[in-house]
Design brief:
41% helix, nine-stranded mixed β-sheet, single chain, 12% strand
């Protein structure tokens, strides 16, 4: 008998002699979340009314919807409850069913309830083997709502070209934080990624699944990292697309993306220059970039009049920034039309904004999307504390401006989190390893490629699918890479990661 076996036998004999029960037969503590884990879900039509296009698309795809009850505060499971809305397209190949695939499209604050139809289509035959489940996270979309009644859909602004502009953006950030305390102070502390992950696990249990597979985009990759850390052993196949580096996740997560955004801007400018007959922005890349600089300078002198909007030098760079997340003709064309409109406004012409520009300015300069901006900022501020001294941001803005006058001030500017109450929980220390499939484009201007590489190094069991030569944020089912889509679907179908990392080439840029 080995020393370890002998010691174990002696311990067991002593326990029996003392009349105590062996550890293996000790009673199991009751589940404080049992009422949530074992709840009955009522599946119903996803259509809320005659104008509900999302519901109609879900219905057409065969989806049904339900509300999952979760505690507002997991430390008080017997207290106030909220609901989380889910949609589900059930597996049709039941003989080879894998399980449930939960989705998150990012944000934070993005609605995912309507995503199962297009994700199911991107999965091709593999989709038949999964229940594809869309989730509007807590306080988002059809879930219990949160709205701080902001005058904007975003807490992100440029600071303008001088100290007066920075001070105005500081005042706006403080105002937005105050609005959230005023209107949603009772729920604000519970808008966090950790609580969203807890909700996911309640959904898992309510669906009757021992483990779930997961597909997350952008911020959704961070949510996946947190879930896999908090609930080890409860994930099956995990795909993270547009990978957030948890070491850099914070309210200032856009810092460090300046060079990727500049690269994307230069590529867009070359595309627009090749189509000068259509957009009239210049026949060379540098000429197009000069138009962007001229717009910013003009907006710094006086706000540009664009339809019913006034676009100052805190908003103008946000228009360009917002137009640089998709690498395709439609997105490039929308940005080119917007820049043309802003140039005409800078020249004093009356401008009726193009559809994408009108939507972007409406999002930024009105409260039509206040709920989205509220939830996004609440989660970022609730997860990780931000510096509180405005001078810290002003110094960072000035340093960044010297490197990139357009994007540097935006990505380093102050935001509402500087005036937020401290987070209730410590940031999650992400687990050491997870056999996940990571997907990222080398030119991604939002979740930069270096972040995916960092996560891949930290998770030696993972594999990385790289889309090379594309300034694209989100790849699977979005960009149109047969190579990347095939790698993801093969993993989802078989449950085995590729033997090595996968490299995929960007699609050729079509001639004008």
């Amino acid at each position: 008998m080995t020393g370890f076996a002998a010691t174990a036998a002696l311990a067991l004999a002593s326990a029996l002699a003392l009349g105590t029960a062996p550890a293996a037969t000790a009673s199991v503590a009751p589940d404080p979340l049992a009422r949530y884990h074992h709840q009955h879900l009522t599946w119903k039509s996803c259509v809320l009314g005659p104008d509900d296009d999302t519901g109609k698309d879900l219905e057409k795809a065969g989806a049904r919807c339900a509300d999952v009850t979760v505690p507002l505060d997991y430390a008080d499971p017997g207290g106030r409850t909220i609901t989380v809305a889910v949609s589900r397209i059930r597996a049709t190949d039941t003989a080879h069913r894998v399980g449930a695939l939960l989705l998150n499209s990012g944000g934070p604050g993005g609605q995912t309830l309507g995503d199962p139809p297009w994700v199911r289509e991107a999965m091709k035959d593999t989709g038949k083997r999964f229940d594809v489940v869309g989730v509007d996270p807590r306080f988002v979309g059809r879930s219990t709502a949160m709205d701080c009644h902001w005058p904007t859909g975003s807490g992100i602004r440029g600071p303008g070209h001088d100290r007066a502009g920075f001070d105005r953006s500081t005042a706006l950030a403080e105002e937005l934080a105050g609005d959230c305390r005023k209107h949603e102070g009772d729920v604000l502390p519970y808008a966090t990624t950790r609580n969203t992950a807890r909700d996911m696990d309640v959904i898992r249990a309510a669906l009757g699944e021992r483990r779930i597979s997961y597909l997350g985009y952008s911020y959704g990759t961070y949510l996946g990292e947190v879930y896999a850390t908090m609930f080890p052993g409860r994930t099956d196949r995990v795909v993270l697309d547009g990978v957030a580096d948890p070491a850099r996740y914070s309210p200032r997560l856009l810092r460090g993306s300046e060079s990727a955004n500049r690269h994307a801007l230069r590529d867009w400018a070359a595309w627009a220059a090749a189509r000068d007959t259509t957009y009239g922005l210049g026949r060379g890349r540098d000429a197009v970039l000069a138009v962007v600089d001229r717009i910013q300078a003009a907006a710094g002198r006086a706000p540009l009049r664009v339809g019913g909007y006034r676009v100052d030098d805190g908003v103008a760079p946000m228009v360009v920034f917002s137009g640089l997340s998709q690498d395709d003709d439609a997105a490039y064309g929308a940005l080119a039309a917007a820049v043309r409109d802003l140039r005409d406004a800078a020249d004093g012409k009356a401008v009726n904004p193009s559809p994408w520009l009108a939507d972007t300015l409406g999002f930024t300069l009105t409260g039509s999307e206040s709920a989205y901006g509220s939830v996004q900022m609440a989660i970022l501020c609730g997860d990780v504390a931000a510096p509180r001294d405005p001078e810290t941001y002003w110094k960072d803005v000035q340093r960044a401006r010297a490197q990139d006058p357009l994007f540097g001030p935006v990505t380093n500017n102050i935001g509402p989190c500087a005036f937020w109450d401290p987070p209730r929980e410590r940031p999650t220390t992400i687990r050491d390893d997870l056999p996940a499939l990571l997907v990222n484009a080398t030119g991604d201007p939002r979740t930069v490629y270096a972040g995916a590489q960092a996560v891949h190094r930290g998770w030696p069991s993972s594999r990385l699918v790289t889309l090379r030569g594309a300034d694209q944020h989100a790849v699977f089912g979005v960009y149109g890479s047969a190579c990347a889509d095939a790698a993801v679907n093969a993993y989802l179908a078989g449950g085995r990661l590729p033997a090595t990392d996968v490299s995929c080439a960007a699609r050729p840029v079509p001639a004008p």
